[in-house]
């Protein structure tokens, strides 16, 4: 056993990237980890009604070595999605302990700045950086992940300016209870792609009224085309409509006012516009079945959707999808500048060429509220 090759070993030159992705799904204390030839998959869930998936692509690592071990006799290979001869190690680890390990050298500072944006509108202009800013100081920090054998601890080694710290996290055998919330990809009735900051600002604005329910409404030919509403809280209901933007308004159209989210991330009152699709969306497809009519309407527990706020704050784009069963998928695209030290969404580019950012994804899935559950959530006790 001593001469057996390591199952897994990977080296990252920027531990902040790993921390940022894992912190997006840090709402649960434990995560199920699966090592694949293409990267590491982290999955967390809570109450079987919300699931967070973060994939650390092998492109994030300067070195990535994976030697699949021999599969146990009672292990089924078909569930991995790979060939029968390939066994992908799967285990449970403390996600909170892993995050604490990654921020031993103060790696949480830049991410905390992103979280603070949750209370305000994100700026499209990145802050200036110099040799003494936190992103610059993170440039020389490396992280090595090692998983020697089945059942062995997950080893994390951080090195910065000659200081080396190694932590070993106990791994636990997965009980098989971490089952993905199914999204019927062949029964998608709504798909909206937009800048993640616009969704982030809308959810933060609705959160000011402390609602219990997030109501999602989408229609291809009637206003509001795409809207989010917060209901069931102790305060009045609120809504954010992603309206269309046109240069001129038809003379015969009503001048009724409404609150919309504009491209600069601020909300303001704007007159009703002519029919069309929201210009804040890159893709807008709504095809409900005849039983639903022309509009897709689903309710979700607002506190669960808020758990994705960190991912909303750091992502570049978000794909909002819903299937016939009402399962909601929020897939966030996060870009990392792997050639520079600017971190997430950085416009800092090294001299002498064009930097190609590494694209990664974090996926959240939510189970909808049933009609009875939505009615109970909408009941507010004032005393």
From TrEMBL:
Organism: Aspergillus avenaceus
Biological processes annotated in GO: DNA damage checkpoint signaling; DNA repair
Alphabetized UniProt keyword annotations: DNA damage, DNA repair, Nucleus
Region feature (Disordered): 238-279
Protein name from the UniProt record: Rad1/Rec1/Rad17
GO cellular component terms, semicolon-separated: checkpoint clamp complex
InterPro entries (UniProt xref): Rad1_Rec1_Rad17
Family listed: Belongs to the rad1 family.
Annotated Polar residues bias: 238-247
Subcellular localization(s) per the UniProt record: Nucleus
Keyword Cell membrane included in the entry's annotation: no
Record-linked Gene3D superfamilies: 3.70.10.10
Predominant location: nucleus
């Amino acid at each position: 056993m001593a001469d057996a090759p390591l199952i897994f070993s990977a080296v990252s030159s920027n531990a902040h990237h790993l921390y940022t992705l894992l912190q997006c799904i840090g709402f649960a204390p434990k995560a199920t980890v699966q090592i694949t030839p293409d990267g590491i998959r982290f999955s967390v869930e809570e109450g079987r009604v919300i699931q967070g998936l973060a994939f650390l692509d092998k492109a994030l690592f300067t070195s990535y070595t994976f030697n699949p071990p021999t599969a146990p006799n009672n292990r089924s290979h078909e569930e991995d999605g790979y060939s029968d001869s390939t066994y992908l190690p799967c285990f449970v680890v403390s996600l909170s302990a892993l995050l604490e390990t990654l921020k031993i050298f103060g790696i949480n500072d830049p991410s905390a700045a992103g979280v603070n944006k949750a209370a305000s509108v994100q700026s499209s202009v990145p802050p200036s950086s110099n040799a003494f800013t936190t992103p610059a100081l993170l440039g020389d920090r490396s992280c090595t992940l090692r998983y020697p054998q089945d059942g062995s601890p997950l080893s994390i080694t951080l090195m910065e300016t000659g200081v080396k710290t190694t932590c070993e996290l106990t791994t636990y055998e997965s009980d098989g209870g971490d089952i993905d919330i199914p999204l019927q990809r062949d029964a998608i009735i709504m798909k909206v792609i937009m800048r993640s900051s616009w969704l982030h600002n809308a959810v933060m604005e609705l959160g000011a009224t402390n609602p219990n329910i997030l109501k999602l409404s989408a229609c291809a030919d009637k206003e509001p085309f795409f809207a989010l509403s917060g209901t069931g809280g102790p305060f009045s209901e609120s809504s954010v409509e992603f309206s269309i933007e046109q240069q001129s308004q038809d003379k015969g159209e009503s001048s009724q006012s409404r609150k919309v989210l504009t491209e600069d991330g601020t909300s303001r009152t704007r007159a009703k516009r002519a029919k069309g699709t929201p210009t804040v969306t890159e893709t807008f497809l709504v095809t409900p079945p005849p039983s639903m009519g022309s509009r897709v309407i689903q309710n979700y527990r607002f506190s669960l959707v808020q758990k994705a706020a960190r991912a909303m704050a750091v992502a570049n784009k978000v794909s909002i999808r819903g299937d016939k069963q009402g399962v909601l998928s929020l897939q966030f695209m996060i870009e990392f500048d792997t050639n520079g030290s600017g971190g997430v969404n950085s416009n800092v580019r090294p001299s002498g060429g064009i930097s190609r950012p590494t694209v990664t994804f974090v996926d959240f899935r939510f189970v909808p509220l049933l009609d009875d559950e939505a009615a109970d959530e909408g009941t507010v006790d004032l005393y």
